[in-house]
Amino acid sequence: MTHSPLTYRSNNTFKIAQFTDIHIGYPNGEADLKTLADFETCLAHLDVDLIVITGDLVWAYGGLNPLLAFKQLIKRLNKVDIPVAITYGNHDSEYKITRSDLRQLETTLTHSVTKENSSLCQDRENYTLSIYDKVGDKILHQLFLIDSGNEAPKEVGGYAYLFPEQINWFKQKELATKHSLLNLIFMHIPLVEYQYVKEKITSGGQLEAICCPKINTGLFSSLVLSPHNYQVFCGHDHDNNFTASLNQVGLNYGLISGYNVYGVFNRGYREITLHHDQLTTRLVPYQKNPFS
Question: Where does the Calcineurin-like phosphoesterase domain start and stop, copy by copy (predicted)?
């Protein structure tokens, strides 16, 4: 079942919960059981209009079972009546599983979003979501979910970069966002420009180096030159959870959501509240969730 349209609340706000780097891989392991328990408790009391998961939902290498792990997450997401949007990370399809396999499992979500402008580029899916006013007849925001891939070719090294075809897709779809004042981009791997904002951080912290691609294919320049305002939200770096701005483009991290990996921060999610031409955001750790 799909949810459409996504509309503002009666108080003229729209709330998003960004989860990232959940990393379920050992369904009977102590760390995964803790992740699943805290995730389920959080979902049961979550007061948002959309859940966005920005990659590394599962481990997918070695002797692990990523399909079983993904099913464990879907089982819990299906217990709540909140639409869910997903984009994938570098670990989701590392070993004996493809992004196509994972997207097929997405069809078992009870409350999946209606993907707009969906486009595949070498098995990376990019799509948009529209956020409407409370009446449902005017688009206030466009959300771009862009699959940032996993690894770059060996001759380049490092993490994947966005393909030029993905940048062209964004430019074409961005032209159609005539009336929105503020648009959001969700992806897993941070843009190269995240390296340049250490002195511009307004909240959260940077405790590790920015793990971005070695090649810059130009998405950020498109955002700077756009007539719209943009905020980018990523995951990937477990010990970074900051918000910052560069050339009036917001560059933000989520909050690591799983215990099965490194990271000193309390696990949880980032809450994003949209207010027409601006947003507010905060980190909500599981153990400090006011509803738990």
Answer: 14-239
